[in-house]
Amino acid sequence: MKLPSPVQWIEAQRKRGHELCLMLDTFDHKPVLQTLLKDRTHDRYSSLYSQTPIAELAGIGPFLIMLDSGDTQPLTELLNSPERHWGWLVSIAAQDFPALVQHWRERILVGQRPDQGIYRFHDNRVLGRALSSMPPEARPAYLGPAHSVCYAQGEHWLSADNRAPGQHPLPEQPHWLQVPVPPEQRARIRETNAHRFLLAHHQVAYLQLAEHRDPFDWLRLQRGRAEGWGWHAPRQLEFLLVSSLSTPEFEIPMQWHPRVYEEPSEHFERVCQEAKLLQGKGIA
To answer: Domain limits of the chain?
Structure first.
């Protein structure tokens, strides 16, 4: 439902006795996070990536925060800048905060090992696309304990209600993972995820790269190279990025480029083997 402003939704949820929570993408919003967490008890916020297989990314991942009456200033700052894609708002029953945390933790990873990826549910654009494409009966499994959500979509504010709030099992084929993502946005998501991964796991080498080249230009180049080679799996892009970071020029050796008539899977396996050999010799 289209809203004249998110304030209308906030007032309506509070009149119904619901607690309001903020789903915050903390990566570019650290000052807001620090303001909100100051003097807040630990049972009123949670880093969603903690206690999951990607706990090492908890510091740059989304936070779920129960809002208090004193949060007017930081909340107003966020509501006045929807173009920053900081996340979205959700209303729940007072006792359902732990259940909501667990609900989204169960939906963080998508796919099967070793090609699992991170589902960016905290991005308002991802949430909006999913809700606009699924039938109402699919919403409970997606929204879980949430009674309603409020999010920006382009220039408008929208809300979506959940007709059956509660704990729901993860479907075998979730509707929200079948939503087609525009190629340009898919590319931006992959670059952002790669940027966060390198900061979390290879910070020293990545910062050295930033002294010589624009990180996002470099990421864009490497992503385009991986796609051109048919390396579409997350682990393949990860290998290319990490291997490139370990060289003085931040580019993998020319002999690791594909050979004529070499299939993408053959190419990847060959390069992996060559990398292991170099590591064994102490070269890479």
So the answer is: 2-177, 183-280
